[in-house]
Design a protein that fits this description.
about 50% helix, 24 helices, alpha/beta, Nucleotidyltransferase, domain 5, RNase H type-1 domain-containing protein, RNaseH-like_sf
């Protein structure tokens, strides 16, 4: 809800440094603090590092970049035309500094515009470049039975091929089979796409732009297999792919990725129906021992260096990788810079570089998450922490111990023994150094902490 309110036209109003951005940033910080249970004294950079929430200016620039990439893919888009006119007037003139200061979105646009020659430019959305019926075309695909997929790892490798041929015997009979695959090694090299047909002794290898995604390379292989089949008037074909994401996109009515190749494939499937060409799709797990799929995989890897360069143009959605990497780099730079100033304990003992918060895939209750958030940040409601922030005059515990810190409350304090006695017995064999600071969120560690918070608001 906060994001939806903040992100209305940010590239126009608050992309530059002004009072509005400062106010919005304060609201975001407070929202993170309340949602994740951090104390008011918790450093802002620690909260952002824990939740992996970028600063608003960084996120606004990311959203602006995605928007510009999308409208650049439309031919003669009015916003693109106006922005180009503005930039042409001021670039390489004294006015360029004024533009960067008062309308920094123009500089973001110029950076995204430098990629326009890589992407497909169309008069409108790719889905509407073909017939209405092609947009409604959805494709069902076959797969191995669930009981086989569930126990796939236990099946001997030499038995996979006979099982595959037996299950799909009727589908494969009298059909030309095309195995398709895509390969991407890293972000700095070309992307490979390949088609292989054992009956025709046919293999195609395509070298795609380094910005292309694996999804795109898989879809491009399927598109070219269909193109070849229709061009040669094949009456019955089967396409075997290990890309479930591409087949799921074809199976649904919505093209969630806005990838133009999906629209092209649907148009070819419609044409195949018109020509009475029977097209079937089969999904198989990758690297499972099916011979045709293994050969297609090898060809796709080989295509990275030896593939033919085709008329392929990168979908604009694949170029979202560029602003995403810029966002990650800017955020990591902010964390690295501020960690030298505040949050020293957290960054020394608990911080790990990750794209997700530590709790994103854990089914913990909110009180468990907020408890560990406070402990990891070293800002919790114990006298040791409160004394460090000059909120109380004495760090000692009510039991008489000189310091009421986390280790004391869990392991030594007689006042908390009724709540944590069973836990102390369970943790006797563990080294306290492995538990403090709490780098890893374990249930044995969280249970006593949550118990204390539920029994008394004064603890943690």
């Amino acid at each position: 809800m906060i994001h939806a309110s903040f992100e209305y036209a940010p590239l126009i109003f608050v992309l530059n440094d002004n009072r509005s951005l400062v106010r919005l940033q304060r609201i975001q910080n407070q929202a993170i603090r309340i949602t994740c249970g951090y104390r008011n004294s918790t450093p802002i950079n620690v909260m952002h590092a824990e939740t992996r929430e970028p600063l608003l200016k960084q996120r606004f620039e990311y959203l602006a970049s995605k928007y510009f990439l999308k409208i650049i893919s439309f031919r003669d888009h009015p916003v693109v035309t106006k922005l180009l006119e503005i930039c042409d007037l001021v670039v390489n003139t004294p006015r360029s500094f004024y533009l960067g200061t008062h309308f920094p979105a123009a500089l973001v646009f110029l950076h995204m515009w430098s990629y326009n020659k890589l992407m497909l430019i169309t008069p409108g959305l790719p889905a509407y470049q073909n017939s209405y019926y092609s947009t409604c075309t959805n494709v069902s695909y076959l797969s191995l039975p669930p009981n086989i997929l569930k126990n796939f790892d236990t099946i001997p490798q030499q038995n996979i091929q006979p099982i595959f041929e037996d299950i799909f015997r009727r589908v494969l009979a009298r059909a030309i089979v095309f195995y398709t695959d895509g390969s991407k090694v890293d972000d700095g090299t070309y992307v490979g796409s390949a088609v292989y047909s054992p009956q025709l002794d046919l293999h195609f290898m395509f070298k795609l732009s380094s910005y292309a995604s694996v999804f795109t390379s898989e879809a491009w292989a399927i598109y070219n297999a269909l193109l070849f089949a229709l061009h040669n008037d094949l009456s019955r074909i089967v396409i075997v792919s290990d890309s479930k994401s591409v087949l799921d996109s074809l199976a649904g009515f919505r093209n969630r990725t806005n990838n133009y190749i999906i629209s092209y494939i649907r148009a070819l499937i419609e044409e195949a129906k018109f020509r009475n060409t029977q097209v079937s799709f089969i999904w198989v797990p990758s690297h499972c021992g099916i011979q045709g799929n293994e050969i297609a995989d090898q060809l796709a890897k080989k295509a990275i260096g030896e593939g033919a360069e085709s008329n392929f143009m990168t979908p604009y959605s694949d170029l979202f990788f560029i602003p995403r990497m810029r966002l990650s780099k800017a955020f990591d730079s902010y964390i690295k810079r501020t960690s030298r100033i505040t949050g020293e304990y957290y960054f020394k003992n608990c911080y790990t570089h990750n794209n997700k918060p530590w709790f994103h895939d854990l089914r913990f209750s909110r009180i468990m998450i907020t408890t560990l958030n406070r402990l990891r940040s070293n800002h919790f409601n114990l006298n040791y922490s409160l004394f460090r922030k000059n909120l109380i005059d004495n760090p000692s515990c009510l039991c008489g111990a000189p310091s009421q810190d986390f280790a004391h409350v869990i392991f030594f304090c007689p006042l908390t023994e009724p709540y944590v006695a069973s836990i102390r017995l369970a943790l006797n064999d563990l080294d306290q150094e492995d538990l403090i600071p709490p780098k890893i969120p374990t249930l044995p560690l969280l249970v006593p902490c949550v118990t204390l918070r539920q029994r008394s608001v004064d603890y943690l």
